[in-house]
Automatic annotation (TrEMBL):
PANTHER family on file: NDR1_HIN1-LIKE PROTEIN 3, OS05G0367900 PROTEIN
GO cellular component terms, semicolon-separated: plasma membrane; plasmodesma
Matches recorded under InterPro entries: LEA_2, NDR1-like
Protein name: Late embryogenesis abundant protein LEA-2 subgroup domain-containing protein
Membrane topology: Single-pass membrane protein
Keywords: Membrane, Transmembrane, Transmembrane helix
GO-annotated biological processes: defense response to other organism
The keyword Transmembrane appears for this protein: yes
Membrane-spanning segments: 57-79
Protein's organism: Capsicum annuum
Source organism phylogeny: Eukaryota, Viridiplantae, Streptophyta, Embryophyta, Tracheophyta
UniProt main location, coarse: membrane
Compartment list: Membrane
Keyword Glycoprotein belongs to the record: no
Length: 237
């Protein structure tokens, strides 16, 4: 049987209301981690102690660095240290012969000038060892240099004499050719190394022993084949 005619719009069957539901909030990780300290007071106490110790150590180190920097600046301002100058003021070579027996005979005189320009620092030269070299070949050693004290703004001269002979073996082709070339020119390249043990003195205070090395590269004329030029040496600590 046909449906009776319906007046108005037809919206379909009625929709029942949604069932009532309770809201649920999931606990966040932040809240759980924040409550862990309250749950474990021992952990909180350890963290606080560790942070306090680190902070104290950092502050102590910073304070010590500042104090050391201030002390260093005061000492520098009072002492005004200057570098000691070493020069070879004169050099003479009266014998430098290499014979067929592989023997090198030498007679070398050097005058070393040491200048201490400091006003408040003296220097104790406890020991000095001097070595003479010819293109890396050590042909002379001096160990009998007397120790001495050098006062403020003082210049001290040392006379070093290397005399004798050494059985050097074969010089080799390269060194032999250099020797023949320099022999023809009348000027030899001689190296001087001075190994020292010194102590610094300011007022009544003496420093521990310092071991500098003095390096001098010289062009020494043979006998009267020229004039030696004053040469500055280099100081290595």
């Amino acid at each position: 049987m046909p449906e009776p005619y319906l007046n108005g719009a037809y919206y379909g069957p009625s929709i029942p209301p949604p069932p009532s539901s309770k809201t649920y909030h999931r606990p966040s990780h932040r809240s759980s981690s924040g409550s862990s300290c309250c749950c474990n007071p021992f952990t909180c106490c350890c963290k606080c102690i560790f942070n306090c110790i680190c902070t104290c150590i950092f502050q102590i180190l910073c304070t010590l660095l500042i104090i050391l920097a201030v002390i260093g600046f005061i000492l520098w301002f009072i002492l005004r240290p200057n570098k000691v100058n070493f020069h070879i003021s004169n050099a003479s070579l009266t014998q430098f012969d290499y014979n067929n027996n592989n023997t090198l005979s030498y007679n070398l005189h050097l005058n070393v000038s040491i200048r201490n320009p400091n006003k408040r620092i003296g220097i104790y030269y406890d020991s000095i060892e001097a070595r003479a070299y010819y293109h890396g070949l050590n042909f002379g050693n001096l160990t009998n240099i007397d120790p001495f004290y050098q006062g403020h703004k003082n210049t001290t001269d040392l006379d070093l004499v290397f005399k004798g002979f050494i059985n050097s073996g074969q010089l080799g082709s390269e060194l032999g050719s250099k020797y023949n070339e320099e022999k023809g020119n009348g000027v030899y390249e001689i190296g001087l190394r001075m190994y020292m043990r010194i102590r610094l003195k300011f007022w009544w205070i003496k420093s521990k022993k310092i071991k500098p090395m003095i390096k001098c590269d010289l062009n020494v004329p043979f006998k009267t084949n020229g004039t030696f030029e004053r040469t500055q040496c280099h100081l290595d600590w």
